Amino acid sequence: MAKRQNISKAIVVGKALAAATLKRRAQAIEKRRRVLAKAKLKVEPTKRVLAKAPVTHASMGVLIAEGDSWFDYPFHDILSDLEDSYGFDVESAAHRGDTVEDMAYSDGQLDDFSRRVEKVLRMGVEPRAILLSGGGNDVAGDEFAILLNYATSSYPGLNDSIVTGVIDQRLREAYVTILSAITAICKHHLGHPVPIVVHGYDYPVPDGRGFAGGWGPLPGPWLEPGFRRKGYSEINRRKQICVELIDRFDTMLAGLAGKPPFGHVRFLNLRGTLSTGSTYKTWWANELHPTQKGFDAVTKKFAAIL
Q1: For residue range 122-141, what is the model confidence (pLDDT) as tens digits?
Q2: pLDDT digits (tens, 9 = 90+) for 8-28
Q3: Rounded to 5 degrees, what are φ and ψ at 278?
Q4: Helix intervals (H) in 133-234
Q5: What are residue 198's DSSP bridge partners?
Q6: Which terminus, N or C, of the chain has the lesser number of Cβ atoms within 10 Å?
Q7: Residue 4 has what DSSP assignment?
């Protein structure tokens, strides 16, 4: 009963945040309209900028994305691969390092998302789908160690009550909130919901590798320090705990997708896509992010569900 009440409250919060966002965006749209009405615009035919790069307007559809570093990673990520390898056009409001709570409760995030929807509609195109990525930054990094009991304690491994509080309460409510807000914004602009794809993560290898080695100011590692602090030195035990954590997160997220009021939401299961065996470094660039080969494999599954 308490869980249903929390979900109902999160839906109400999401709709309220969407309403506040749409009010701000209506003011911005009116400001833009006045500026364009006063401007003396001369419409010219589109010119080909590069003779050796013919322009094509063919597309598999327009996607709007909100998310974290799996959507916004240097040199290669899921969104760039969807454009370059699968022919989609992507409007992205994703920012590496963002948490699901940032996306759900920060006014600026929802404003940016709504702006992307408006931009697509001005082109006379309806989005084919919304892509939503998030959750890794809510549990990795400085916060990770709190999820663990000490290895020498009476109950080693994940602290079930804390994991329940973080994943099954905080993250679940944040996801319900942002899904409700995104749905309300799309309904306002289009009169109906747009399909939303959410995804889990694959099982990481907590070996202490950060971005480009994680030296100095570079990000990472995100998992190994917490394991080391709580006394877990054996890599296979660390990997086992990560499997349990990812399974908990995916179970939570899969439990929302396709269920009222989120019948338009699809869950993409990415577990088992990237190897954690002896060749894992060809799949994982560091503790949290795939290599180009890994991103290619993940994007293939996105393209299939789309």
Answers
A1: 999 999 999 999 999 999 99
A2: 899 999 999 999 999 999 999
A3: -65, -20
A4: 136-139, 160-163, 172-190, 224-229
A5: 132, 267
A6: N
A7: H
